[in-house]
Amino acid sequence: MCDRNLGRILDLMDEHDLWRDTMLIVGTDHGFLLGEHGWWAKNQMPYYNEVANNP
Prior knowledge:
The protein is mainly alpha-helical. It is built from two helices and two strands. It has one domain. InterPro entries: Alkaline_phosphatase_core_sf (IPR017850).
């Protein structure tokens, strides 16, 4: 979902030639475990690199 929606924004910026005077800043939440280390989701928050660091 995020990739698709960010792609739509980037396409619109291309379409309207906004890159000359616009800076796009993208922020993120911390990571989310999807089965790595035997953990799932955010119900437990061990300090693994995937959870503790923002991209």
